[in-house]
Amino acid sequence: MEIRHLVTFKSIVDMGGFSRAAVHLGYAQSTITAHIQALEQELGVPLFDRIGKKVQLTDVGENFLVHAIEMIQLYTKAKDVFQMENEEVVTLKIGAPESLTIYRLPQIIQAFRSQNPKVNILMKSGSCWELQDELRRGDLDIAFFLQAPLTDSDLYMETLIEEPLVILLPPESDTRILSSFKLNTNENIILTEQGSYRDYFEAFLRSKGIATESGMEFWSVEAIKQCVMCGLGISMLPLVTVQSEMQQNKLKIINWDTNLGSVSTIMSWHKNRWQSRAARTFMEVVREQSPLWNHVFK
What we know:
This protein is α/β, with parallel strands linked by helices. It has helices at residues 3-15, 18-25, 29-43, 59-85, 98-103, 105-115, 128-137, 196-207, 221-229, 243-247, 277-289, and strands at residues 48-51, 54-57, 90-96, 119-125, 142-147, 155-163, 165-169, 188-191, 216-217, 233-238, 252-255, 263-270.
């Protein structure tokens, strides 16, 4: 039983088919098929049901997937130990949403790389739920989330800091307060990606009789800020993402009431995935640096 065959098997499951796995792994589709045939011949049972163009795991395939992931992780562990001991280059795969990638992680990465120049860092941006799925699949070493604290049966969740939220107003906007908030005429609602603080914002607006169905959705923090600054509408973002614009009077804000909901920056890793020395060192740097995040402009 070869590791590459197990990797192919897992990739078919992750990617949702043989052809997508072939593209993902850089193989010809015939190679993918040969890998699975070799596994099925060795095990003596089919791993996939092939129904037309669809493939789905058999019951045996579902059970075997758990063991395949464990074997791949054990192989990765052995390889990482060898590489670290021989000072070879290793890659640390880290996931985070855009806001944390831009406003929280650069200083941490700089501090880590200054002490560990041989460790490559591969950053993956995505939504919190996408990154959680990638952690569960073993595709990431560490992930950072910006959401309400939660528990997960597969993942460790370490809360680093509660992130204050603010409602953003254009710089020429009238002064408003949360308790008597109203939407001005022709003022648009600009929504960020799905997640905890968008849910809070929409619930708040609905409580004020403001419909959110016609809101405009942007997945970029920078795009949202530019839209608000040019007077297109209002939005909600974590305070850390707008401190520079506030100092330059490019935005007005309304401080959010945490009784209406709060979010935190959370560091997460898989409970059953072996952590390389590089990953453990990176997490220690995060724990050293994150207390400095409390010193923010307000």
